[in-house]
Amino acid sequence: MLRRQNESRCVPVHPRSALVERRRAFTKLELIVSLSIIGLLAALVLPAILASRAASRRQYCANNLRQVGVALHGFEAEHRKFPPGISPDPPFVSRIDGNGSSGWISPWAYLLAYLDQPVLGRAAPLRGLSPVWDPAIEVPGELAHIVPVLRCPADRQSEKARPGCNYRACFGVGPSEFSGGAFQPIRLMRADEIRDGLAHTIGVSERLIGSYSPTAADPQRDLWFSGIGAVNSGRIDADAMRIGCDSYQVGADTFPYMGSTWLIAGWLHTGYNHVARPNERVMDCDTLSFGHAAPSTAMVTARSLHAGGVNSLYMDGHVVFMSEQIDLYVWRALATRDGLERVSAP
User: Fold this and answer.
1) Is residue 23 part of a domain?
2) For the chain, how long is the longest CA-to-CA vector?
3) CA distance 288 to 235
4) Residue 13 maps to a domain
5) How many domains does the chain have?
6) At a CB cut-off of 8 Å and minimum separation 6, what does 65 contact?
7) What percent of the chain has pLDDT over 70?
8) Beta-carbon count within 10 A of 344 CB
9) Is the dihedral of CA 342, 323, 195, 242 positive or negative?
10) 187-200 burial by CB neighbour count: b if 16+ within 10 A, else e?
11) Is residue 72 a part of any domain in this protein?
12) Is 342 part of a structural domain of the chain?
C-alpha cells in the first residue's frame, strides 16, 4: 500500500512561462557606474598617451640636432674649420636684393651636402626677390626647398613657413652678432679657437617659428621692432637689451615671420643668443624701428613647445635638454667660446 502511494506520487508540472528567465534592463545606476569607470580610465590613459607623444617629439627634435652636429663635424673634417654664422660668400649668391631681404647666407647653406640633401644651385636666381615670407610671392625652388632635419616636429607652425627653420646658430651672450659665440659673421672658426672646449660650448638651439599673424603678435614666436637704438646710441649689453624688450606694448610693430627660411642668415631666421633664458616670457626684440634693414642688435631667445625647456647642441655633437629654469650665468657662460668661465655644463 505504501509502496503504491510512493509510486503514484508525481512531480508537479510548472507552467512553461515560469521556466523562462526574465531579462533584466541596464539600470541607470549601472550606466552611471560604467560611464564613470570609462571616464576614469580615459583620464588615466589619455595624459600618458599625450606625454608619450610629447616625449617622442622631443626625442625626434634631439635626433635632428644630432644630425646637424654630425654635419658640422663633417664640414670641419673636410675644411678644418666650422662654417661661418653669416657669410656673403657662395654656395649661393653674394647679395639678395628686395624689400628687407638679407644679403647674407646662413651656416646651414654650407651643410646641405652633409645633411643628405640634393645640391642646390650655386647661382640661385635670388636677385630682386621680395621677402621669402611674402605669401603673394612665388618662391624659387632653391628657397622653397624644405630641409626636414631643420624643422622641429613639435612646432606645427613650420608647416606654414616657407620653407621653415627651427634650429639656429649661437652668436654668443650679447645682442650683437659679435658676442663671442661659436658662430661669428664672415669668420670660419677652428676647433682650437673654442677654448672653453667643444663639450662646454653650445652651438645650436631651437626656436619657434613666427606666428605668421600680422595683426596678433605672439610673444613666444615673434620679434618686436623696439626702436630703442634711436634713444641709446651707446653699446647695449645683454641685461639692458632684455630690459628694453620687456617694455613691449600690444599693438607695436612686430615681425611675425621669424624662421621662415634656412638660407638667410641673421637674427630673423637662423641666429640666436643667450641674452635671456630659454622660453623667456619677455618678447624678443631688436633695437631698430619698423622698416629699417635687418637688425644687427637684438634679443633672440631659444624657445620651444617642449615642456620645461629646449634642446641644445654642443659643439662636440652631443645634445642636452636645457631647463628653462637654468641659472642665467650658466646659460650665458655656455654660449661663449673662450670666456673661460668655471661652470658645470648640464
Assistant:
1) no
2) 132
3) 14
4) no
5) 1
6) 167, 204, 206, 311, 312, 313, 319
7) 74
8) 7
9) negative
10) bbbeeeebebebeb
11) yes
12) no
